[in-house]
Structures are given as structure tokens and as C-alpha cells.
Amino acid sequence: MAEQRKFSFAKPFVYLALCGYLTVVVYPMLWLLYTSLKTDREIFLNPFSLPELGDLQWINFTNAWTKGHFGDYFFNSVFLTISTVAVSMLLAAMAAYALARFRFFGVRPMFFYFLAGLMIPLQLSIVPLFFQMKDFGLLNSRLGILIVYVAFGMPFAIFILTGFFKSLPSGLHESALIDGAGEFRAFWSIMLPLARPGLITVGIFAFLGAWNEFFMAFMFLSGEGSQALRTLPLGLANITIVSQYRSDWGMAFAGLVLIMAPTMLVYAFLQQYLTKGITVGALKG
After folding, report:
1. 170 and 29 share one domain
2. What is the model's pLDDT at position 91?
3. Is 51 helix (H, G, I), strand (E, B) or coil?
4. Are both 161 and 255 inside the same structural domain?
5. Is residue 2 in some structural domain?
6. What is the pLDDT of residue 15?
7. Structure confidence at residue 84 (pLDDT)
8. N or C: which end of the chain has fewer CB within 10 A?
């Protein structure tokens, strides 16, 4: 009874803390949304006030899409993101399936070899990677930045999917082999569909990593003639930094909304798989 009264007494404070945390998280996104509908003058004079309903600057989104070339940048980001997600999921699933299901010499060291990729700081590898990309002629190319995105996303994807494949019933795999299916057919038709929550988890993180990535894109897509290959984060930096020595802040905030919207939609529809996929990968990896 004492524990129950203590819990009831603390419940309002828990709700208050959660409401405070919700405000801290949600308000910046709402502020970003309504600020994108203001003029530059309103942004600087009344940064936290709501825009006037009769003077909403929808033109900011039009300017970002046309004058800011966000249409081209959006296509580049969509192409790179979809390619990164597809290639990462396919390669990581095949590697994780082999590490989880097959027993061969060196399987554990190989798993930890992939896992060691999570411990390499990006900044430490960027200089040798830059010269290696230059030697292979992959600078300022979609293929080059795609290879980099996939390579840096593979360790985490393999870690999650290895644990997920280990959690699947081995009887299904054995039954498929007894019925005459080969290893590839058993993987593609039986085990891979069962690993859908883990694949979605990997896909979400691959999407977030590729869609919002700036540093590697800036390093590998900043040469001459690379403007047509820039992604949305690079395009936003171009608006806010080098827009004829004057930043159009309304257009910049509209660009931020265009970048944020797909991320919010993906997370809203697929967030239920995040916790399940990560938990299984952590427990079984």
C-alpha cells in the first residue's frame, strides 16, 4: 500500500516532466515550421511570434525549390538515399545471415571485424579516404558517395541483422532445406521475409544517415562541376552561406522544412519497428 501511494504521489510529477520534455522536443519543430512562413524582417524583429495569417510567405517554399535549386538537390538526395538503403539492406542481410546461420572457421573474428567499423571515427578516416577516392576517380560522383555511405553504414546494419537472424527459429530453415530448397532460396523466400522488422530498422537508420548527411557529401561533392550532384544539406549550406553575400532566411527555413518533412514521415510510419529491431539485435548479437 505504501508503494502504491508513493507511486500515485509521484505520477503527476512524472507527467509534468514528460510534458516538459515533449515541449522541448516539439516546439523547435513548430517554430521552424511557422518561421518558414515569415519574411526576413519578421524573423529578426519578432523571431518567436506567430506569422500574420494574412501575410503567410508561401513564396519561401517556391523560392527554395526554384531559386535555391532544391528541386535538383531533392532528386539527388532521394536517389542517393534510396540507393543507400537498398544496397545496405541487401549486402548487410546476406552478410548477417552467413554470420548468424553458418558455422565456419573465423566466423566470430569476422563478426567482430565488421563490428570494429563502429569504433572508427569518421574524422580519422576522411583524409586517407579522400585520397583513395581521388586515385579511383570517384570524387564528385554519385557512385563514389554511394560507396562511402554504404561502407560506413554496413557495421551497424550487420550488427542488428546478425542478432535478428539468430533470433529466428532454425526449424524453418531446416524444413526448407529438407523440402529441397537451396541455401539461397531458403534465405530469399523464408528467412529474409521473417527478418522484416530488422530490415526496416536498418532501413530507417540508413535513410536518416544518408538523408541528413553533410560532412562526407561536402568533402566528396565540392569540386568543380559538382553543383548538379549536391544533396539537400549542401544546398541548404549554399543558401545560408554563399547566397550572393546575403542570406535569405525565409527561404533557408523553408529549405529546412523540406529536409525535415520526409524524415518525420518515415519515422512516424515506421517507428514501431525501431525498438524491436534494436532490442533483438542487442540481445542476440
Report:
1. no
2. 93
3. coil
4. yes
5. no
6. 84
7. 94
8. N
Specify the CATH number for the domain of residue 137: 1.10.3720.10
Give yes or no: residues 178 and 256 share one domain: yes
For the stretch 145-200, pLDDT in tens is 999 999 999 999 998 888 888 887 777 777 877 777 777 888 888 888 888 888 88
70 & 166 share domain? yes
Q: Are residues 221 and 82 in the same domain?
A: yes
Q: Indicate left, alpha or beta for 246 from its phi (over 0: left) and psi (-120 to 50: alpha).
A: beta
Same domain, 35 and 87: no
Residues of the chain scoring pLDDT < 50: 1-3, 245, 283, 285
Q: What is the rounded CA–CA span in Å between residue 259 and residue 159? A: 28
Task: Residue 149: count other Cβ atoms within 10 Å of its Cβ.
Answer: 23
Q: What is the dihedral of CA 149, 154, 157, 159, to 10 degrees?
A: -150
Report yes or no on 255 lying in a domain: yes
Half-sphere exposure at residue 47, Cβ-oriented, CA atoms within 13 angstroms:
4
**pLDDT tens digits, one per residue of 117-144:** 888 888 888 888 889 888 888 888 899 9
> How far is the C-alpha of 256 from the C-alpha of 133, rounded, in Å?
30
Residue 273, pLDDT score: 67
Residue 128 to residue 78: CA distance in whole angstroms: 28
Structural domain span for residue 141: 63-284
Rounded CA-CA distance 250/149 in Å is 31
pLDDT of residue 247: 67
Q: Among 144, 153, 149, which residue's Cα sits nearest to residue 226? A: 144
Buried b (16+ CB within 10 A) or exposed e, 227-238: bebbbbbbbbbb
